[in-house]
Amino acid sequence: MKMNELIEEAKKAREYAYVPYSKFKVGAALLTKDGKVYRGCNIENAAYSMCNCAERTALFKAYSEGDKEFAALAVIADTPRPVPPCGACRQVISELCPSDMKVILANLNGDIMELTVKELLPQAFSAEDMYE
Ligand SMILES: O=c1ccn([C@H]2C[C@H](O)[C@@H](CO)O2)c(=O)[nH]1
Ligand SMILES: [Zn+2]
């Protein structure tokens, strides 16, 4: 699957965003190594801290279906620059995805930024820091 196709999948996911509070729609598309795509959108709640980002929705969907081998993640929102994932998502992505996996950030203007998981969260805290 091409990078632009994965961004299109993220754009479709974005349409399902449930964002009555922020009105800020985000879409994500997670490509597995065997070519399957899991879409995710952000889902908010009146108890604001319960809001779930698009990236984590996609990752948790895949994981809960037994898919754990990922090849790329695309994220899109209507932002001036390609949408930067929040710190919480960076932490989750860095634990569940390979450190050299491609993360494609995009916006609706067609701006794209491509980086790796380890570039997204350098010096990430991980299990290795707790157990030797
Ligand atoms: O990369 C991001 C950044 C923000 N959000 C969501 C969380 C919340 O619903 C709204 C505003 O922060 O956007 C995401 O889904 N992904
Ligand atoms: Zn997030």
Structural notes for this entry:
The chain is an alpha+beta fold and 132 residues long. It has a single domain, classed as Cytidine Deaminase, domain 2 (3-Layer(aba) Sandwich), CATH 3.40.140.10. A five-stranded mixed β-sheet has the order 2-1-3-4-5. Strand 1 and strand 2 form a beta hairpin. The model has no long low-confidence stretch (mean pLDDT 97). The structure holds 2'-deoxyuridine and zinc ion. The site of 2'-deoxyuridine has 15 residues, from helix 2. Belongs to the cytidine and deoxycytidylate deaminase family. It catalyses: cytidine + H2O + H(+) = uridine + NH4(+); 2'-deoxycytidine + H2O + H(+) = 2'-deoxyuridine + NH4(+). This enzyme scavenges exogenous and endogenous cytidine and 2'-deoxycytidine for UMP synthesis. InterPro entries: APOBEC/CMP_deaminase_Zn-bd, CMP_dCMP_dom, Cyt/Deoxycyt_deaminase, Cyt_deam_tetra, Cytidine_deaminase-like. It comes from Saccharococcus thermophilus.
Strand and helix map with partners:
Elements: H1 3-14, E1 26-32, E2 37-41, H2 54-64, E3 70-77, H3 87-96, E4 102-107, E5 112-116, H4 117-120
Parallel strand pairs: 3-4
Antiparallel strand pairs: 1-2, 1-3, 4-5
Zinc ion (ZN) binds near residues 53, 55, 85 and 88.
